[in-house]
Amino acid sequence: MSSRKKEKLIMNFGLSVEQLIEDVEGIVNRHRMNYIDAIVFYCDKNKFDVESLAALIPSSLRSKVEESARQTRMLKKQYYKITTLPI
Fold first, then answer.
1. What burial class does residue 10 get, using C-beta atoms within 10 Å of its C-beta: 0-12 exposed, 13-18 middle, 19+ buried?
2. pTM
């Protein structure tokens, strides 16, 4: 996504990427949710469309979402490298 489109989305939502990260991290810590649930909760609370907001999620937060999905086995095994030993 181009930076111009991101800027337009940021203006439409009325928030910055830094604020989004801070809010989602707060929800994760306060409500003990995983990152996926926290983002959906944030969108529901603020009446944002999850699909549109997904374009604003920076790579640092995306990696946490991916890790959360991997831990809860929401991703197919072929999608990620196995980095932990099987127990």
1. middle
2. 0.71
Residues 2-30: pLDDT tens digits?
566 566 666 666 777 888 889 999 999 99
Residue 4 sits at φ, ψ, to 5 deg, of -65, -40
Token code pair at residue 7: 């800027």
Extents of the domains making up the chain: 3-79
Q: Return the HEC string of the chain.
A: CCHHHHHHHHHHHCCCHHHHHHHHHHHHHHHCCCHHHHHHHHHHHHCCCHHHHHCCCCHHHHHHHHHHHHHCCCCCHHHCCCCCCCC
